[in-house]
Predict the 3D structure of the following.
Amino acid sequence: MRAESQDKLLCLKAGLLCVILFFWVSGVMMICVGISVQIKLSDVSIVVAETSSGAPVALTVVGMIIFFLSGLGFVAAFKEDQVLMKIFAGIMLLLFIIEIIVGLSAYSYRNKLQRNVLNRFLKVLSKYGVEKQITRAVDGVQQEFQCCGAGNFTDWFNISAGISQNSVPNSCCRIVQPQCGEDAMERREQLYQEGCVLKMKIWISEHYDVIGAVGIGLGLTQILGILFSCLLVKILQEKYVPVRGAKEAAR
């Protein structure tokens, strides 16, 4: 019986260590992706919120939590420490619940979020040509996503500051040249006509499969981690409780 329990202990310990290793790799990847997105989409962050976007920062923070939590799990598994293992499983469960709540909230408010992005984008357009950082960011977004304006290129016709009447920024041009954005209605075939909010939505939609796969993989890893931890704690209790009972009886 003892040999059987020892085999179970070793199998669960090995399984938990494999899960923790995958969890650790996921954390490192999330940190790298979060930092990369912050760098790559810095212009989008400025345009959409006029501040650094919270999503890449949140991704980086969650990645760091997973990184350090994995370290705690490794220590708990190697030392067969029941207390640390319970803490590890508890934090994993809490993190899993938070991820579900955040995911459901983001899905429920996706339409409202799109409207907010559109309104913020329109607000930022009025500062084009006035604030250097916003001007550079808007140009960057329009070139990156091959778009013009928030809803479409005609949004620029209602902007009094920064550009001439019935004109759009040169960054709206398919081939950027001096004054290529003037007389936009006559030259609209030479311009990106779709709005940037729609183009950003399409870009996000194209990455849904990857985001979904990563989310499902991370969720399953957490469930396995919680399950293995609880089973390991149970076997450790069965292993050590009889020993303590025998010592007390000997006294």
The chain has eight helices and no strands. Residues 75 and 81 are 8 Å apart (CA to CA). Helices lie at 2-40, 42-49, 54-79, 82-108, 110-125, 132-144, 196-206, 208-250.
